Amino acid sequence: MRLQFLLLFAFIITLPGFGQHVVQRNSEIEQLVQQISSDSLENYVRALASFKSRHTLNTDAEQGMIAAQNYVKVKFSEFSSKSNGRLTSMIDEFVVPGDGRRIVTDAKVANVVAMLHGTNNKQDPRMILISGHLDSRNKDVMDATGASPGANDDGSGVALVLELARILSQTEFPATLVFVAFTGEEQGLKGATYLADKAKEMSWKIEAVLNNDIVGNSNSSETNISNNTVMRVFSETIPLAEDERGATIRRSINSDNDSPSRQLARYIKELGERYVDHMEVKLIYRNDRFLRGGDQTPFMKNGFTAVRMSEMNENFLHQHENVRVENGVQYGDLPEFMDFEYLRKVAAVNLASAASLALAPGMPQEVKIDVRGLSNSTSLIWKAPIHGIAKGYYVLMRETSSSMWEKKFYTEDTSLKLPYSKDNYFFAVQAVSAQGMESLPVIPSPLSR
After folding, report:
1. Would the CA dihedral through 326, 332, 335, 339 be positive or negative?
2. Residue 422, number of CB atoms within 10 A of its CB
3. What CA–CA distance (Å, rounded) separates 155 from 127?
4. Where are the alpha helices (DSSP H) in 254-339?
5. For site-directed labelling of 331, which of 61, 196, 322, 409 has its Cα 20 to 30 A away?
């Protein structure tokens, strides 16, 4: 069905003396968010955990990785039948060359991919990619046969991908939504590297990658913190694919905290907290956890905008551990140690962000900040997005010490002059549709002549 947009105005009043904060929710996005089911997510996770081992190198067609891939493909096919043919899916096989480490010899593996095609692919080739990894592991990363249920790592991410495919496949979007269950994450990000390289070679217009890895637990080991109201979004600071020209501009305007991935992270925080009650999205200024990595990294290396979504409190008794009871303590990545209501909220943050991007116009082009003379005001100019129709634009502003955008100025022109000094503030520009859907922000580069 084609969405008919209405704005729902929800007013949230803070404590006296702190003023009022107005939250504007698009009613159709809100209805999509409300369709996410913790029961559905639990069913997906338990089905995935029921396979004996989803190790990348496991070739058991009944209880191993191949069976798990077929399960995901069957679910995508079920959703496709209700999408009027707009959702297509495939098991995308490829060969990973042996590296003598985590891939001993050449191995045939596969990602499971579904595409919800946009309403006009030729005119609007933008893609939004939502992912998790299907493979699981034990303490020994080369144990391809031992029981490794992988409920949270990363059955939770794949369950989220399936649930969003189920819900979003019944709606039309201008941009294409791509749902991926990667393989080979634990063996060195093999599936993500393959798809990121394929996307670069085929010039896919991927606007954002939302990678979900370990998103279904709310209790930490050791500290025993239990909190299902906070999640993390990791985003790179200096882009991994930055060239010398980009580095020169970044250094000249001091935009170290404004990479495209950081803009995506801020967008997810704003949209997620707008639509999901009792959920705080924490921005983590790292590509991933300390000295660790995830499937978002190959996309960033190829110049795509990507982030990692993850739970706030990890429990290492149930991550990369063999299933066993030791000294009365249960180890292993089992479904009973997950919080499916928490997983529902993380899925809702993903859905609100991805659907909003897929409905918004593309980003404004050639965004510039005028530096041709000294001034205590700031002038910005830009061009309309290549894809989609912008009714207007938000010029965003924040103090240099602030992590989030603090003010939005609306205009229907392609320029705006503000009585604020560029010495003291950072600025960006978003395109906005007639229905109020916002693009990712773009940081301006200097206009000096």
Report:
1. positive
2. 21
3. 24
4. 260-275, 297-301
5. 61
Supply the DSSP symbol for 5: -
* 383-436 pLDDT, tens digit each: 999 999 999 999 999 999 999 999 999 999 999 999 999 999 999 999 999 999
Rounded CA separation 204/255 (Å): 26
In CATH terms, the fold of domain 365-447 is Immunoglobulin-like (2.60.40)
Q: How far apart are CA 314 and CA 225, in angstroms?
A: 10
Other CB atoms closer than 10 Å to residue 388's CB: what's the count? 20
Of 155, 157, 158, 136, residue with least CA distance to 147? 136
274-322: pLDDT as tens digits: 999 999 999 999 999 999 999 999 999 999 999 999 999 999 999 999 9
Spatial separation of the C-alpha atoms in residues 298 and 308, rounded to whole Å: 12
**Encoded tokens for 26:** 């698009």
Q: Among 3, 298, 295, which residue's Cα sits nearest to residue 135?
A: 295
Q: Report helix, strand and coil shares of the chain as percent, to nearest 5.
A: 25, 30, 45
DSSP assigned state of 336? G
CA dihedral for 337, 60, 296, 99, sign (positive or negative): positive
**C-alpha 163: how far from chain center:** 14
Neighbours of 99 (CB within 10 A): 13
Do 365-447 and 28-359 fall under one CATH topology?
no
Contacts of 38 (CB under 8 A, 6+ apart): 340, 341, 343, 344
CA distances from 227 to 99, 112, 136, 238, 250 (A): 40, 32, 25, 31, 37
Give the Cα-Cα-Cα angle 350, 124, 264 (nearest 5 degrees).
Answer: 30
Exposure on the CB side of residue 191, measured as CA atoms within 13 A: 28
Helix (H) or strand (E) holding 231: strand 230-234
Tokens of 300: 């960033």
What residues form DSSP beta bridges with 408? 396
From residue 124, give the alpha-carbon distance in Å to each of 161, 229, 353: 23, 36, 19
- Euclidean distance between CA atoms 435 and 190, whole angstroms: 40
Regarding the domain with residue range 28-359, which homologous superfamily does it belong to in the CATH classification? Zn peptidases (3.40.630.10)
Provide the residue type at 97 as one letter: P
Could you tell me the residue ranges of all domains in the chain? 28-359, 365-447
Residue 69: closest CA among 84, 91, 89: 91
What letter represents residue 345's amino acid?
Answer: K
